[in-house]
Amino acid sequence: MKKNIKLGVFGFGCVGQGLYNVLHQTRGISAEIKKICIKHPEKDRPIDAKFFTTSRDEILNDPEIDVVVELIDEVEAAFEIVSAALRKKKAVVSANKKMIAEHFAELLNLQKKYNTSLLYEASCCASIPVIRNLEEYYDNDLLTSVEGILNGSTNYILTHIFENNKAFNTALKDAQAHGYAESDPSLDVQALDPKYKLLIILVHAFGIILTPDDIFNYGIDHLKEADIRYAREKNARIKLIARCAKNGDKVYALVMPQLVAEQNTLNKVTYEYNGLLLEGAFSEHQFFMGKGAGGSATGSAVLSDISALTYDYRYEYKKLHQQLNHAYTRNLMLDVYVSYNGIEPNINDFESIWVKHESAECNYLVGMINLEKLVSVKWRNEPTISIILNNVI
Ligand SMILES: NC(=O)c1ccc[n+]([C@@H]2O[C@H](COP(=O)([O-])OP(=O)(O)OC[C@H]3O[C@@H](n4cnc5c(N)ncnc54)[C@H](OP(=O)(O)O)[C@@H]3O)[C@@H](O)[C@H]2O)c1
Hints:
Elements: E1 5-10, H1 14-23, E2 31-37, E3 52-53, H2 56-60, E4 67-70, H3 76-87, E5 91-94, H4 97-102, H5 104-113, E6 118-119, H6 122-125, H7 131-136, E7 143-149, H8 152-164, H9 168-177, H10 186-189, H11 192-206, E8 216-217, H12 225-233, E9 236-247, E10 250-261, E11 273-280, E12 284-291, H13 295-309, H14 318-321, E13 327-328, E14 333-340, E15 352-358, E16 363-370, H15 371-376, E17 386-392
Parallel strand pairs: 1-2, 1-4, 2-3, 4-5, 5-6, 8-10, 10-13
Antiparallel strand pairs: 7-9, 7-11, 9-10, 11-12, 14-16, 14-17, 15-16
Helix pairs in contact: 1-13, 3-5, 8-9
């Protein structure tokens, strides 16, 4: 690819503007924005109107544009844009984890068929370079687990609840006002956003391609005051943890709120920060931390992908090609705390129960349940039931 690249950008919201700002504050990258496609032409924009269009084709059909940068908040429109750009052999950068997770296999095929590159570093942990590290540094089968806080918005909410005694809704509004929440906040609080990210990480960490329905996610929208108190009594915080790891010759993945003890490194990851703990057979623990949301932080990861394209970088999907043949499993035991008011969890669904506490203030049990069972039980969706992971056994 030639050194001075011309960009066609889709979206000029939080991340699009973040990219514009970081691009104009660096001299190290020879890239310029030629056009920006937006949805609402009537909106006030902070830059010259000559940049904007509402016509996709003005970017997709422009032979001068080498790289399409997709930063919109819609999924199907984004998939249409990205697949059309790949078919035109343009390289693409995207931050849209939901679109990538829902269409992973198709996007992989398009990259192969049209021999072009799709990079998506910003989609996983915003500013933390996780995908390229998994591809280039952890490019062997010695990696054993990846776990962490992959959602800046819920971490911001949980930090405010634990450190500043804020109510859930106040903390959510605050996260939205700072641009840390998705346009649709249910993606964050129901743990869908970190699940999409985990799906992408799984491909680069273990060479497994799943669909979002394959991965269990449980959000923070069930949390009650009693759960916060319980965590405080245990000298822990509740964090929304996504993890994928080897379990014998199989690999599991799940996203759940978890009790994180004070001495755990992830306990110190606060507000909009993301943190990722990687474990290898010989390298043992490594820890990455960085801003997991926000326009400039995410824009800087997008910029890094654009920069990588100036030297023709593309993901090799090394773990897929190594044919590691790790089978995916949901057959594993979880040590969980379950609180309830009214409708009770069925105790027969548990392998064992260690604690059963009932009082006027709150009821809870602590016990062991198989993940496969937890996926199938209806009681877990009751709004008065809240499940928090202690440990994977
Ligand atoms: N915000 C973050 O911290 C963050 C972090 C990591 C990844 N991401 C991802 O980055 C992407 C963008 O997020 P954001 O926070 O920047 O969203 P946003 O602030 O809501 O901005 C969305 C932008 O997309 C444009 N748009 C929407 N539909 C369009 C369409 N069909 N055609 C053309 N333009 C369209 C909107 O146009 P108008 O301006 O005309 O309305 C707007 O400029 C999402 O995929 C998100 O998941 C965000």
